[in-house]
Design goal:
The chain is an alpha+beta fold and 247 residues long. Helices cover 28% and strands 32% of the residues. The termini are far apart.
């Protein structure tokens, strides 16, 4: 299975059972840090293996793609794309993606990550993660990617101001968002077991958070909040988070 096909799976994966995503952010004292979007595809790998016995002959993969390097390499091809497509690809520039796939062990994991000076530099990381799987044949690592990106209907904005961290959702196209909600009805059975986990590491203890059900590390500096992926897709505004830190 080549690298481009694996990228395509990132989009397809949201339609399979038990898709487990983790959005993890590490903050330093000065507000800089690292963001990582992790996809656990082990159950997905088991399903693919049951449908295709030849996968057991595939070589294990542990590969990293640096989008900044890819976009530089493909800059001439990208320049021929419509401006809106170029803008989508530009959003991927700060990120790298690591794929670890072992068909024999039944493991498939994706990590998309970026360091930042301000967390706002990596706004809308989850949409960028999905768009990473939508690279067209004109700019992908090879010419076999079957997926094409679509315009996101929501946008995620992060901010850290003083002792307050916020994660806010903006619905950028209400009509298209409602159409997506209608299309989700046919996928509810598949997505009902999927989860999305927020895991944030702060340099100070958490004083309060605006959601119920969050858990904290012994030192109070790490917050973990797990939600049902389908519920998040249906009501993204419910994932507006506000975390206040101690002075």
């Amino acid at each position: 299975m080549n690298f481009s096909k694996l990228l395509g799976i990132l989009v397809f994966s949201t339609l399979l059972p038990s898709c487990n995503f983790t959005e993890e952010i590490y903050f330093n004292e000065d507000g800089s840090g690292k963001l990582n979007i992790h996809f656990d595809g082990n159950e997905m790998m088991a399903m693919l293996a049951s449908m295709d016995s030849t996968l057991s002959t595939e070589k294990a993969i542990d590969s990293t793609l640096v989008f900044r390097d890819l976009l530089e390499e493909k800059k001439d091809s990208i320049a021929q794309l419509p401006p809106e497509e170029q803008a989508k690809l530009k959003k991927l520039e700060p990120f790298s993606i690591r794929m670890v796939v072992d068909h024999v062990k039944g493991t498939m994991n994706f990590d998309m990550y970026s360091e930042f000076k301000k967390v706002s530099e990596v706004n809308d990381a989850f949409n960028a993660f999905q768009e990473a799987g939508s690279l067209g044949p004109s700019i992908g690592p090879d010419s076999t990617s079957p997926m094409k990106s679509k315009t996101p209907t929501t946008q995620v904005n992060y901010a850290l101001r003083g002792n307050t961290f916020t994660r806010k959702i903006i619905i950028v196209d209400q009509t298209m968002f409602e159409q997506e909600l209608d299309s989700l009805q046919g996928a509810e059975m598949f997505l009902s077991g999927s989860t999305y986990t927020f895991k944030y590491h702060f340099p100070k203890r958490v004083k309060r958070v605006n959601v119920e059900g969050a858990t904290f590390s012994m030192d109070g500096k790490t917050m973990v909040y797990e939600v049902n992926f389908l519920d998040m897709m249906k009501n993204p505004k419910s994932m507006d988070l506000k975390v206040e830190l101690e002075n």
